[in-house]
Design a protein that fits this description.
By secondary structure, the chain is α+β, with helices and mostly antiparallel strands. The chain contains five helices and six strands. It has a six-stranded mixed β-sheet. Helix 1 packs antiparallel against helix 2 and helix 3 crosses helix 4. The longest helix is centred in the last third of the chain and has 29 residues.
Length: 159
């Protein structure tokens, strides 16, 4: 890894949460693929990325490019029995700190897996009851998305 690598790449290569925190703006905005309302602030972002480190068995950046000042990272993440594909679009502020991040995940069933591995640990950090509720509310979503994936594939694809 080169010394001039983007802080996001360095974070996933080293899993150094403190160095990643130093790269974030104090008022960083993270747009989740799961929630309409973004996560705002460095402390919230560090909490979220700590959960990501715990949740993903394997995280690999598979591509990277810069266009009009935005850094785009393509990635694959393993979580249990599912591999999730994603894209993170990162915008830096004038100081070079990460100011905004938008996360996109596919396939739809992967979004359910993403929710299932990330939601309960994040909620649990805010109380045991919240963790249980997040797990209970997320389980039907994950199952529904798996069923939709199977049925929709059969409906729209030729044999």
């Amino acid at each position: 890894m080169s010394a001039d690598a983007h802080p996001y790449r360095r974070f996933w290569d080293t899993r150094d949460l403190d160095a990643w925190a130093d790269a974030l703006s104090t008022d960083v905005v993270l747009h989740s693929p799961l929630l309409e309302r973004p996560f705002v602030g460095r402390a919230v972002a560090i909490d979220l990325f700590g959960s990501l480190l715990d949740a993903f068995d394997d995280f690999r950046i598979t591509g990277e490019f810069v266009k009009d000042g935005e850094h785009v990272f393509l990635w694959l993440a393993g979580t249990g029995d599912r591999e999730i594909e994603g894209v993170d679009v990162i915008r830096l502020d004038v100081r070079g700190d990460v100011a905004e991040m938008r996360v996109f995940v596919r396939p739809l069933v992967g979004l359910g897996s993403f929710s299932a591995v990330l939601g309960p640990p994040l909620a649990r950090r805010r109380g045991a009851t919240r963790g249980v509720l997040a797990r209970l509310l997320g389980a039907p979503l994950r199952l529904l998305l798996k069923v939709i994936d199977v049925i929709a594939t059969r409906l729209v694809q030729t044999r």
